[in-house]
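Hi U.,

Before I forget, here's the chain from the pilot set. I'm dumping it here mostly so it's searchable later in email.
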Amino acid sequence: MEKRKPEETLNLLFCVNRKFLSLFVSCLTSIARSGGYGHYDAYVLHSDFAQPEIDALGRDFLGTVDFHFIRVPETLFDGFPETSRYPKQIYYRLAAHLLLPETLERILYLDVDTVIINPLKELYETDFAGNYYIGCTHTRELLTKINQARLHSEKAVSYINTGVLLLNLPALRENVRLEDIRDYTNERKYALILPDQDILTALYGDKVKLADTMRYNLSDRILAFYNGNHPRERVDLDWVRQNSVVIHYCGKNKPWNGDYTGVLGVFYRELMEKGYQYRAEHGQSAAGAVDS
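Structure:
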């Protein structure tokens, strides 16, 4: 088999447990359809995937996605705060550089409640310019100052939404220690609201190169804020369809829930209607393997 050139492959990172397998499959399907690359290496940091699910994913995305499942030690994040909404897996991305193969230099992390609607190439190939991460912010200036005080951050940095992050792995290996993350978490445990985002912003917010939120981490709330602040330059769904890349259904307002309100749910509905044709052509559904 001919060896694939590195520039033909996009490295993906997911940190997920089997409870969210159906969303994981949805996200992967959107990437396979619209991500713009012929092949993807998906590294999955997890604690509970079983072999039947792993095998089914391999069949579903045969020829397009190669999966690399890495089981995270149970004790790695002992003592870190977690809830049903924010399980321990949210911290895995903070230690990804310690768990991934040292041969990797960059990798794109995505939350599984994202849908990709246009090619990822421009984001994936962005120059880090010496930063550890490339990401987006969902907060305005006032909230930035409030978060700075809440997190005892010495620098006024933008609050980072960690649902879409490009990781500079050599820089992270050299500069980011799990001990520092653990120490900060223990000191500020009771002040953390969105724990992984709080930690990354407080410790490394000044090492995040900001990307265009409207293109790479667009939510219904962000779209509404933008249109409210730019009444003469309102962004409609045609603009989103042409220009945005990552739709992020963050927070509790999600189109697969009955109480969803928003306009961006159209992209999830289209994925449900058309996106599964790809997997149907490749065999058993990995999501279905959970129920079998």
